[in-house]
Amino acid sequence: MRLQTFAGLALPLISLTTARTETPFLGFPSPWISPDPTDAEWQAAYDKAVAFVSQLTLTEKVNLTTGTGWEADRCIGKTGSVPRLGFEGFCLMDGPLGVRYADKASAFPAGMNAAATFSKRLIRARGEAMGEEFRGKGIDVQLGPVAGALGRTPQGGRNWEGFSPDPYLTGVAIAETIKGIQSKGVIACAKHYILNEQEHFRGSIDVRIDDKTMHELYLWPFADAVRAGVGSVMCSYNRVNGTYACENEWVQNYLLKNELGFRGFGECFLGGALTQAVLKGEVPQWRLDDMVTRIMASFFRVHVGNYTSRPEPNFSAWTQNTTGPQYKYSNRPWTTINSHVDVQSNHAALIREIAAKSTVILKNTGLLPLSKSSLPSLAVIGNDAHDNPNGPNSCPERACINGTVAMGYGSGTADFPYLISPAAALSRLSQQHNIPFFNTTSNWDLPTAQSTASHASVAIVFATATSGENFVSIDGNAGDRNNLTLWDNGDALIRAVAAVNPNTIVVLHTAGPVLIDYAAAHPNISAILWAGFPGQESGNGLADVLFGDVAPQGRSPFTWGKSLASYGVELITVAADPRNPRQEFPEGVFVDYRWFLSPGKGDRGDVTYGFGHGLGYTSFEYSDLSIVSKVGGGGGGQGQGGYGEGITKGKTTPPAPVVGEVIDLDEGWEGYTAPEGFEQWRIPRFVYPWVNATVYNSENGTARSPAIGDFPPEARDGTPQEHLPAGGEEGGNGGLYEVLFEVKVDVKNTGEREGVEVVQLYLSPNNPLSPSLLLRGFTDIPLPPNATATLTFPLTRRDLSNWNTLTQNWEILTDYPKTIFVGSSSMDLRLNGTLPL
User: Fold this and answer.
1) Where in the chain is the domain with CATH 2.60.40.10?
2) Are 286 and 44 in contact (CB under 8 A)?
3) Who contacts 30 (Cβ-Cβ below 8 Å, separation ≥6)?
């Protein structure tokens, strides 16, 4: 999360103009953007929010939009409260795979593992389980899930927190996760919005991006998040076309709030300075009212039950001591700060299932599955297979490789309640079935590794390459990976073991793709498995797949290239001016498989294993592809015609409303100052909303109030605003989600074992502006031998459209035929057909 605090602000508060390429616009003001809910749940929530906010004073409103300060309260982020109305402030906590800094909570598989299941059911279930745990700890906002970094470059430090470099897969995954989290009464926070694609220079880098790429790639999953009803969005550290994302009018108002129809709240860090700004007329009252109304609307939409009875935080993010001062920098009051509430429930079973079903079998020459009854002997080799001798949480923020790696490092981590290493799981299984078991931990003692491998009929060698956030560096990797090789001598270890054992299995715990072309071609390497970052049940989930207790269904959520250069993207690690680093995105929409498989861009010959690839223990046959049009008529050059009239709306918002008592700016600041005796009882480092508390807030770096000349006049524009043609509803114009076609296909299990097939639908737009293939549907289907299932995939207007930078709208380019492919990966396409546009 952002290392300051939360202010519940639907950003931006103010903004200077920002350029946008490939559009007729030069800059944007910061006008009022009405929430204007079109969803019944949001409308009901806004009605409750307005009624609540109408009762608040100015300082109470500021208190709800302001964080109390870093380490000032129990949670990583905590807003002020409204004691007069019995409302306790919001508790916000990392992270995207579990409750950070808390005991007796689960460490779930990473987002990329959830995506690798290609299972909407499992992704939703993971969100539900996390929501239950956050709610059980008294947390109101989970700072996740992640769609930025999307994964532009495979080196990106925080890719593993998200889902996939494919925006469609990430869009589905983030939406299902949000629905799961929020169904349990916890507000989800989609982050990091937007273009947070590397850790180097993340706080200053200026990402220069064109409008088409923004819409068709990076904004796409955030649209899905908004459509799913996400209550909060966290803006990113970087700049976008010259202006920081958090104060970028195009990014925050034009795209997020207007075009995507975002109804919730974002983040900022202001404190008492906001009270001053409102009283001085720098920030209009309607802007503050909009902030707090959005916050409370998100709360009322998501929260279950009466707000005065919701559980308060029962833990401290800063210590696991049972008792201590309620506020870290104050000796009073001394109280119970950790109740050690166990919120894990039966989630270990789900974590184990996802760990198994996200494991991707990249290569299998027939050795797998292993037999418990007839395996002569087994060797497990490598540091990454074994327990950290100092415990799984011994390295702060999980920033080490002293033992098996089951998550990346940084603020997106959680404490392991326990961690089942592969060596522990396989040793226990071997003992239960009387399989001779050998193991060694060192990655550098190659003679011992070879000796151990040579004593076993099957040798499993483990290797890792992790990544994380830039405030921690491991072996010179400052968040982003320096390259795509394995860490800790992993490549040499694999080669050494394979040289002496003809039944070598390679298991990879990596933050993304690594260069393994040598292993794919090695005759002694019989199987390669990518296990990613599987969470606390790592070893058990892996064993379930190796021995066939779980039918493999993992599919790679990214492409495995043969070299770093083959990806066609560049990570900026050195800048001519470190204070003003700049990054172009010349590849545009051609990222990952969209790059490799598009003629004139990448080279499919540079792919070791493709996006969506994954093997199972049976075989499947595809047949009877059919395409059914759901709406009559032709498409027309702009995608209008018979495909519905909802694509252009042109609706206008009402004027910006003031909620509650109108502040008289001529009355002065009396009534907005700290109460008498404040100095005697104030809490050090705590952020207060009163105008004369600024001197105290300066301890925490918050005493800053911008001069009135810093604000352009448009920043205070509360007049009615026109909705954009591509907007109007949550996630964009409702017409975008109209189903135009249904694609049906039969899939039959032709093997001798029950198995799960992940059927993938791709669109070929066949126009020069688009990649050759775009994922547009997927489903996982379990089938017993000889069984057949008919699967149906909907195709929406959005699925078929391109972004027109001149009209600022989506359009279907009907001059180009649209081809549909169905198969088991982006490089294994079995059937195809043409859409009747």
Assistant:
1) 620-648+728-834
2) no
3) 12, 13, 14, 15, 249, 253, 712, 714, 715, 717
State the Cα–Cα distance between residues 723 and 719, nearest whole angstrom: 13
- Please check the confidence at residue 129 and state whether its pLDDT lies above 80: yes
pLDDT in tens, 657-714: 899 888 888 877 778 888 888 888 888 888 888 887 654 444 444 444 444 445 666 6
Which residue bears the tokens 């050059």?
A: 637
Nearest to 50 by CA among 275, 292, 285: 292
Residues of the chain with CATH 3.20.20.300: 40-319+679-716
CATH number for the domain running over 40-319+679-716: 3.20.20.300
Neighbouring C-beta atoms of residue 76, cutoff 10 Å? 25
- As given in the structure block, the two tokens for residue 160 are 């593993």
The residues near 386 (Cβ < 8 Å, ≥ 6 apart) are 380, 403, 404, 421, 422, 423, 439, 441
Task: Name the pLDDT band for 238 (thresholds 50, 70, 90).
Answer: very high
**Residues of each domain in the chain carrying CATH 3.40.50.1700:** 350-555
Structure tokens at 145: 């899930």
Concatenating the DSSP letter of every residue in 649-667 gives ---BPPPPPP-SSPP-GGG
Three-state DSSP class for residue 525: strand
Q: Which fold has domain 620-648+728-834?
A: Immunoglobulin-like (2.60.40)
Q: Of the candidates 302, 219, 298, 218, which has an alpha carbon nearest to the alpha carbon of residue 258?
A: 219
The 3-class secondary structure across 232-288, one letter per residue, is: EEEECCCEECCEEHHHCHHHHHHHHHHHCCCCCECCCCCCHHHHHHHHCCCCCHHHH
CA–CA separation, 732 and 778 (whole Å):
22
Q: In terms of Cα–Cα distance, which of 201, 246, 195 is closest to 221?
A: 195
pTM exceeding 0.90: yes
Other CB atoms within 10 A of residue 475 CB: 10
Pick the CATH number of 350-555 from 2.40.50.1070, 3.40.50.1700, 3.60.15.10, 3.90.650.10: 3.40.50.1700
Tell me the pairing of strands 504-510 and 458-465: parallel
**718: burial class by Cβ within 10 Å (0-12, 13-18, 19+)?**
middle
